[in-house]
Design brief:
The structure holds two protein chains of two kinds.
Chain A lengths: L1 E5 L2 H11 L5 E7 L2 E7 L5 E8 L5 E4 L3 E6 H8 L7 E6 L5 E7 L6 E7 L8 E2 L7 E6 H14 L2 E7 L2 E8 L2 E8 L12 E4 L3 E6 H7 L8 E6 L5 E8 L4 E7 L6
Antiparallel strand pairs in A: 1-5, 1-7, 2-3, 2-6, 3-4, 4-19, 7-8, 8-9, 11-15, 11-17, 12-13, 12-16, 13-14, 17-18, 18-19
Chain B lengths: L11 E2 L1
Classes of the chains: A alpha+beta, B mainly beta.
Chain lengths: 259, 14
């Protein structure tokens, strides 16, 4: 028996919305530690990794590890039947082929239940090594979204150059070029607006804006996004879902290489 | 893909 209750159902809706344009079908793995998911997009260029620790949930029970094979578009459609303020409980029997979704209004006056068919999905699970990154930029997630959107008007590849006191996003395209520099800024009174740079050595890498744009669908999940970079290894864009329990949504994208 | 490496070339199957 698996049962997990999202006290704030909106978080689940945002998580699914942040993954559904990259990943069509995926296995959500449930175990005694929590819920996790790892999937590549269809062209295997990027990877999405979700971790929701059991402490994140209002209540969590998982007697035996199970994988829930889901079509994210269908999942998202059913989740549209929930109200923003609802608590959402997911339930599945061991060896069952349906996922039960229960939506409860805040005052408990409305309870709805939906069943969704599960699928058998062959998924390739990749081992992601622990990496010490040369540069980690933590910035307001809305700022990252805006930069990706704005620079996407000019071109399709963004250069991200990280130095001690600032990070530069630059783009060149047919109609011209542009760049945005964010300086390190530790807004003590408003930590959500801070830009922090942890640097071991300066890093300059290029990435496809099309993918970064899909990553920013997670903006609503967290006021801050972090970009972890090292030469020749994939960039990690992380949105913390819950700081206290180390629950997160991460996206990986390899840097573009010159030919 | 031109200039873009796939994820499988960085992370091992496991």
């Amino acid at each position: 028996m698996f049962e997990a209750r999202f006290e704030t159902g909106e978080t689940l809706i945002k998580i699914v919305d942040a993954m559904k344009e990259l990943v069509e079908d995926c296995n959500i793995d449930c175990s005694t530690t929590g819920m996790s998911m790892q999937a590549m997009d269809q062209s295997h260029v990027s990877l999405v990794a979700l971790m929701l620790q059991k402490e994140f949930f209002g209540s969590f029970r998982c007697d035996r590890s199970i994988s829930l094979g889901l079509n994210l578009l269908s999942f998202s459609k059913i989740l549209k039947c929930a109200s923003k303020e609802d608590a959402i409980t997911l339930k599945a029997e061991d060896g069952g082929d349906v996922l039960t979704l229960m939506f409860e209004s805040k005052d408990g006056s409305r309870v709805s239940e939906f069943e969704m068919k599960l699928m058998d999905i062959d998924s390739e699970h990749l081992g992601i090594p622990e990496t010490e990154y040369k540069a980690v930029v933590t910035m307001p997630s809305g700022e990252f979204q805006r930069i990706v959107r704005d620079l996407g008007i000019i071109g399709d590849t963004v250069g991200i150059g990280c130095e001690k006191d600032g990070v530069r996003f630059s783009v060149t395209g047919d109609l011209g070029s542009g760049n945005v520099v964010l300086k390190q800024n530790t807004s003590a009174d408003k930590p959500d607006l801070a830009t922090l740079i942890e640097l071991e050595e300066p890093v300059e890498l290029s990435f496809a804006l099309r993918y970064l744009s899909l990553f920013t669908k997670a903006t609503g999940l967290s006021p801050q996004a972090s970009l972890s970079m090292s030469p020749e290894v994939p960039l990690v864009v992380e949105y913390k879902i819950d700081d206290e329990t180390a629950s997160y949504l991460r996206y990986y994208l390899a840097p573009k290489v010159d030919e | 893909k031109g200039g873009q490496k796939r994820m499988d070339s960085f992370f091992t199957m496991g």
